[in-house]
Specification:
Blueprint (H helix, E strand, L loop, with lengths): L17 H4 L2 H30 L5 H26 L6 H21 L3 H20 L1 H7 L6
C-alpha cells in the first residue's frame, strides 16, 4: 500500500466542554465556592493594604494575616475551578473549605454586632455547598460513588 492509497481518517472531533453537561447543582457549588475564595482574597488584599499603607496597631501582624488569607484563598478558588470543569478531585478541597468555614462562621456569630450578618451568610453558603456536593446528581457527574 502506497502513501497515496492510504486514506486518512478525519480526526475525531474534540469532545464538547464538560462544563456544558454539568448539573446545575455542581455549577452552583462551584459559584459559591469561588465567591468564598474571592472574599478571602479580597480580605487578604485589604489586610495587606492596611499593613503597608494604613496605620494598624501591628503592621507586621496585618501583613502576615493578609498573606495568610491570600494563601488560604487559593484552596476554594482552585476547588471551584475544578468543580466547574467537572474534575473528580475538586470535591475534597471544596468540602474541606466548607468544613473550615463553619467554625469561622461560629466565631463571627459570637463576636456579635455587624459580624452576625457575615456569620449567617458564611454558614448558609457552607451548608448549601455541602448539600450540593453530596447530592447524588453531583457525585455522579464527578464520577464518585459505586459504579452502576
Amino acid at each position: 500500500m502506497t502513501k497515496k492509497q492510504r486514506t486518512e481518517t478525519p480526526a475525531e472531533p474534540a469532545p464538547s466542554s464538560t462544563s456544558a453537561a454539568l448539573p446545575r447543582r455542581l455549577t452552583g457549588a462551584a459559584v459559591l465556592t469561588a465567591l468564598e475564595g474571592l472574599a478571602l482574597a479580597g480580605l487578604g488584599i485589604y489586610m495587606l493594604y492596611v499593613g503597608v499603607a494604613g496605620h494598624p496597631d501591628s503592621p507586621q501582624q496585618a501583613e502576615t494575616g493578609g498573606v495568610t488569607l491570600l494563601a488560604l484563598a487559593a484552596l476554594p478558588l482552585v476547588a471551584a475551578r475544578g468543580l466547574r470543569l467537572g474534575r473528580r478531585w475538586s470535591r475534597g478541597p471544596a468540602l474541606i473549605t466548607q468544613l473550615m468555614a463553619l467554625p469561622v462562621a461560629w466565631t463571627l456569630w459570637t463576636t456579635g454586632g455587624a459580624m452576625i450578618a457575615a456569620a449567617v451568610a458564611l454558614a448558609l453558603a457552607a451548608v448549601a455547598v455541602v448539600a450540593l456536593l453530596v447530592n447524588p446528581t453531583a457525585t455522579r457527574a464527578l464520577g464518585i460513588g459505586p459504579a452502576a
